[in-house]
Please model this.
Amino acid sequence: MIDLSSNITLVILVTSLATYLSRFLGVVSSENIDVKSKIFRWFNCIAYSTLAALIARIVVFPTGTLADAEILIRFLVILLSVAVFFATKKNLVYPTILSAILLTVLNSLY
Amino acid sequence: MDSPALALGASFLAIGALLKDIGFNVQQSFFSTFFTYALPGQLVMAESFFVGASLINIFVAVWLVNVRLYPMSVSLIPLLKDKSQPRWKYYLSCHFLAVSSWLIMKNRYQSIEQKYRIDFWIGIGIGTWGTAIFSTLAGYFLSDYLNKDMMIGLAIVNPVYFTCMMIGAIKNRSIGLSVLLGAILGPLFFLVSPEWSILYGGLLAGTLAFFLGGKDDRPV
Model:
């Protein structure tokens, strides 16, 4: 019989190591990178594109609870929230609160 | 009123409730955010754990979903460098690297004197990290009061918050292209390989954007 508790501890440890690894290697690589270099600009592009790829994947192919909402509803909520973000001069609080309420309501209706 | 704490808090509230659901105790939930502090990675961990994946599988899946932290680190740390500052500060504070803190720092660094940027970063890091830990605990204790529709509502907060912050952070053509191409290629590559889609999609999108962006010397 496997001890579930110590198992969770290992899972947390492994997850944390896998995460810190990228952060740590990033600092190591930064030792010799100049902010005016092309390689810095390239990494900057990759940082934004990887982030966008991740977010788009979460919205289009969600795992977990978000998968229970229809894809059209998910898109609608994202679009409306971005519109509110710009309408409120790039305020982050209004669109995020609105998105949670909107999705909760829309999802319970359809 | 423009606090990122609310969105960050809502996201980790959901994580706290989720961890309770899959059988983590309160200490384990606390340490998960304390030591990992990366939302998509913690989601992958929760799912993998739930389906009984091996530790190696969990390591690879988490590494692949959090691999964005590598280019994020390389594109931020050089901006914070100063000869008068000790190196351990950089190695320790890179733990605070997450989407929200990164975007905040990217938007602010120019207004902070080079020498103090790393200290400013540590301040932002502790603030965002602390908020995440606190919200994880709050989510853990509130989970009994959250119904399924509310959980779904909370799950959209994080993508909405990241999307808004990212669009707001577009400062030049190559960053705009990176965001656009990444958002298209990420889901597209998912159809080919779910696990590797972020790494491959992001790498290709970022490289294309770097070359297509042309000469644009506005700050990054």
Notes: Chain A touches chain B through 77 residues (CB under 8 Å).
